[in-house]
Specification:
The structure is a homodimer. The first copy, chain A, contains three helices and eight strands, in the order E-H-E-E-E-H-E-H-E-E-E. Chain A is α+β, with helices and mostly antiparallel strands. An eight-stranded mixed beta sheet of chain A has the order 2-3-4-1-5-8-7-6. Chains A and B meet through strand 1, helix 1, strand 4, strand 5 and helix 3 of A and strand 1, helix 1, strand 4, strand 5 and helix 3 of B.
């Protein structure tokens, strides 16, 4: 079951500058920022309703996010959906011949399980799936 | 105040074909489809949590959505945020020198008020604001 939109990720070139729009002008709240070394990004978390906007700034030129920014410019990067059972969801997607970036769930440092669906199978949308442990 | 993500809009070239991923494979529910003549799109509404994914298929070659599809291919098109007071939100954005596509709210046929923020001011994201009357 798909529970909700966990977050919409937006690639930006300058996290601090981007706050002037999302926080100062639009009025969203910044909950916190994180340095995610494994993805080579700094992330700002902006809760909205039962979801979040996550602003991603690449911190080197090599990461997937950096290459996306270089190629397409800033904008929406991926859509993360929260599921109750990521293994069952991936099995179902494989059965439907959906192309997956991660065939098996990846376990994050916080215990969160995640996997990406290839945009070729999802109308050009990079879809991330999350199964959270704390819920 | 920003209340929630009302929807994430995804441009697709074929609404029926796109259901095979979003509904049949991923397991989202299709609530209904609408023909929106003013935007020259057919729209499929897929509720998820307190938000929705809206799939947009252009029905001619002239609309903004059709030109987006032609230029960039299918993918995430805009992010719609629900606000409690769209006039106050637009005033605040103007005060912050944010570039707006609609300086004043547009009134939809259902009484909904909406306005678009220019992606140049929003890290490449086309942001739509909604103020709904029924809430």
């Amino acid at each position: 079951m798909i529970k909700k939109v966990n977050h919409i990720a937006v690639v930006v070139s300058d996290l601090q500058a981007s706050m002037r729009f999302w926080v100062d002008a639009l009025g969203l709240e910044l909950s916190h920022t994180e340095h995610v070394a494994s993805q080579a990004v700094d992330v700002a978390f902006l809760p909205v309703g039962d979801s979040k906007i996550e602003l991603l700034q690449p911190i080197d030129d090599e990461s997937g996010v950096a290459r996306y920014l270089e190629k397409r410019g800033p904008g929406m990067h991926h859509l993360c959906l929260e599921v109750d059972d990521i293994v069952a969801t991936l099995a179902r997607l494989k059965g439907a011949e959906v192309q997956l970036i991660n065939e098996e769930p990846v376990i994050g440092s916080d215990g969160r399980k995640f996997a990406f669906i290839h945009p070729k199978s999802a109308n050009g949308v990079l879809v991330e799936l999350y199964e959270l442990t704390e819920e």
